[in-house]
Amino acid sequence: MSGATSNIPSAKWQTCVSTMQCDFIDEPVSIMVKNDWTSHCTWYREFKDTSSGSQRRVKPDKRIKKKLELCRGPFCSHVEGYRDRLIEEERRAAS
Fold first, then answer.
1. Is 19 helix (H, G, I), strand (E, B) or coil?
2. Whole-angstrom Cα distance, residue 23 to residue 7?
3. What is the helix (H) or strand (E) element at residue 89, kind and residue range?
4. Are residues 29 and 19 in contact, defined by beta-carbon separation less than 8 angstroms?
5. Along the 95 residues of the chain, how does pLDDT read in single tens digits?
6. pTM of the full structure
7. Cβ-Cβ contacts under 8 Å for 2 (sequence gap 6 or more)
8. CA 57/CA 35 separation, integer angstroms
9. Under a CB-based contact definition with an 8 Å cutoff, are residues 40 and 29 in contact?
10. How far apart are the C-alpha atoms of 26 and 29, rounded to whole Å?
11. Is the dihedral of CA 62, 45, 80, 12 positive or negative?
12. H or E element: which one contains 77?
């Protein structure tokens, strides 16, 4: 999960989600950004993330296993780019 950005005020909304085609894994993914600017990819959370000590929710099949190493994880440019775009929109709306 990309961490909260402390020098930017919280957003006026609770959560913002967008679905896009990830060109790294060639799958549709949802990117979630919370109002404290933490963000994550739902595909990563479902198939690859084991940092919280929890077991993966879905056992990956052959097709998914090939894509696991292609996934950029919490520092994916798609996740960070979407979060940064929302931050910029909030800054413009505030000024």
1. strand
2. 31
3. helix 77-94
4. yes
5. 555 555 778 888 899 999 999 999 999 999 999 999 999 999 999 888 876 555 556 677 888 889 998 999 888 999 999 999 999 998 888 87
6. 0.79
7. 37, 38, 39, 40, 74, 75, 79, 80, 83
8. 25
9. no
10. 9
11. positive
12. helix 77-94
